[in-house]
Amino acid sequence: MYNFFCGLHLLVNLAEVSNISLAKFENSLERQDKGAATLSATASFTKKSELGVVRFVRTACKVFTKGGDEKNGAYRAFSDYIVQHKDEIIRLAPFRGNRFNILFLDGGLIYYYARDITEFLSNIHGTSNTLLKAVLADSKIPTYVAATKAVGLLEKQVTSHLWKIIERKGHIFDMNGHYLTLLMFLKEASVDSSRFLCGMHVPFPEEIKKDKVLEHLLQESDNDIICQRMLQFLLTAWVAYMEKAVKDHLPGGKYAAVTEEMKEYTKSSLRHNNFPESIFGLLDHLITVRPNATTTTLCNEAYIMFLKNKKYDWLAAKPEEERKQLLKTCHTLTWKTLQEFKYRCNLISETRKQQEEQKKAKLLKERERLFKQKEHMTKDVVYYGLWQSEEDINRNVKELLKESKEECRKALCCQLVFWKNVLNQYYADRSIFNTTQRNKVSLTIDDLVRNLSQFVQDSLSSCDNDEACVSGQPLLVGKTILHHFKDSDNTDSCTDYTSYVINTVPGYPSWYNVTYRGDAAVYTYQLQECYADGSLKIVDDNFTSI
């Protein structure tokens, strides 16, 4: 089994690498004007994660391409302007719906039309809406204009020709030489891109076909210094990526020296996965266009096979009598095909049901395991008691140390694990519940005491404390509590009431809304004070009171 790198994915990933590199380059510039990003009127067209040059190309394509933005765009007016001044039609492609090479392709065309865009929006058409204002603002930024020239040159002299080479018929091992040629070019141009900037140094000179756009890109401009720096920045990143991506096809790689036997065995391997990608694209289109079609899956499979296998041409070449007989035979097989399709669908459905049952059983088994684990933890806490104050901690630790350090350590670990896993207590720094260090070395008793004391102290603090809240919700909210009240007969006897903490009173974070078992009314108390003086205990819903 041989695994080869898809050539078109190389182009996709080079585009991603370019985005990252351009972002770093933009951030490295001092006192840079951000164009549309600095205008309050055009803020709706800016995204923090989007590069300035990408925004410039995207919004310009939205304005000046057919089907871009019919309401705010100016395709018709700009098209007439270009016909009048350049005697040609607009060649911009829609930015949306196109993949990896679109930034390079449209970037070069935007540079070609840059002066026309500025003149058209400033003096001819005007900027009657925020989209047009955003494009005009970005068109005046030298860095963005230089970036469009850089990506345009890369498209005209590198990526488009590499794309053509990848899609040509030939053995996949023939790409070894092309990848090596491209890598050697990138290494040289990343050091000095001046010759590439003027078209004197390119990786595939035999593929170059000059047109008006390329001639304009190769002309000297005021932004060439920035453009040259940007190209060297980009190409350095391309070198690093290519050395990793196609290392198997470069000298020293496992496919660098191939035998005739290997060539014969892999002669059917494609240089790219364009065909399966086209299948997925066509299927996605069919599902979008007719989502409610009867037997959608079968219809889509038949349509794709008929189209990709070129059955129409094959059928049209048959004699009329044979063609009629073939169609008649197909009609008779329709019912059988539908029955097989339904059987296959039922089989898939049954398999999914079995998988769901297995997941359900696995989930129940996991819940039982967790229940037993919590039950074991609860038994330990029942034995040691739940320590809810520093006094409890100091007193119990002192007593347990008289027995053994191991017993004391076990009790401290039990407390921390119970708070975390059984009561599901929140704390901002989750490491406070740890009983071991990262290297699996056990924490000392002093460390455990310090962590438990810190946690208990913070849990007793006001709910205004950020450490005592999760998403603005205090620690006691959502807990079942045992509330002690003195009897009204002026005796020292007390009665325990089980209650549930609903939430805090809006605007009064120290007051809690509470409902009691068997009573539908909602009561309000300052539970933090009750918790601190010991008249309130937290209990676990699944187990006995602690």
Short description:
With 546 residues, the chain is α+β, with helices and mostly antiparallel strands. Helix content is 58%, strand content 7%.
Proportion of residues in β-strands: 5-15%
What does the average pLDDT come to?
82
- Unreliable stretches (pLDDT < 50, length at least 5) are 462-472, 541-546
Strand arrangement in the largest pleated sheet: 6-5-4-3-7
Helix-and-strand structural type: alpha+beta
* Euclidean distance between termini CA atoms: 62 Å
Fraction of residues in helices?
Answer: 55-70%
Q: Count the DSSP helices.
A: 20
What is the string of SSEs from the N terminus onward?
HHHHHHHHHHHHHHHHHHHEEEEEEHE
Question: What form results from the Cα inertia axes?
Answer: extended
Count of strand segments: 7
Description of the molecule:
The chain is α+β, with helices and mostly antiparallel strands and 546 residues long. Among the domains are: 34-140, no CATH class; 150-267, no CATH class; 274-315, no CATH class; 476-546, SH3 type barrels (Roll). 58% of the residues lie in helices and 7% in strands. The chain has a 5-stranded antiparallel sheet with strand order 6-5-4-3-7. It has a two-stranded antiparallel sheet with strand order 1-2. α1 (7-28) packs antiparallel against α7 (142-167) and α4 crosses α10 (212-218). 26% of the residues are buried. Residues 462-472 and 541-546 have low confidence and may be disordered.
